[in-house]
User: What shape does this take?
Amino acid sequence: MGSASVRIYIAGPIFGRPDRNRAMFRRAGDAVLSQLLAIPVIPEDIQPAEHGGTPCPPGRRSEGAAHNESCYLRMDIAELVECDGICLLPGWVDSIGARLEMQVAAHCGLVFFDYNDDTGKVAEIK
Assistant: This one.
């Protein structure tokens, strides 16, 4: 990849993980930036969809989250389709949202990467 304008979406489990898995998302983001020379797009940094002060659409709410999962996913997917690739974190298959993001990325032709938290390496999935 190797261009400062290339954007890689980081997908992985959030719900039910300590501190919403923020530390692993940040480590993966740092690895994407340093190894792929790409801009990491981290879901935690994306603002949830606003709904004019009305209640959130139906959906699961993470502990401490201001909105339901659906409010976050609406904006996450909008950001994802503007990215060039997706980097999957360990445990992504256990996440409903990450599995959805993976499917969207596959259908949109994004390049796939895997993040290994033990080694800190990002590798393209062929």
User: Anything to note?
Assistant: Helices lie at 22-36, 69-80, 96-107. The chain has a mean pLDDT of 90. The chain is about 30% helix and 20% strand. The first strand starts at residue 7 and ends at 11.
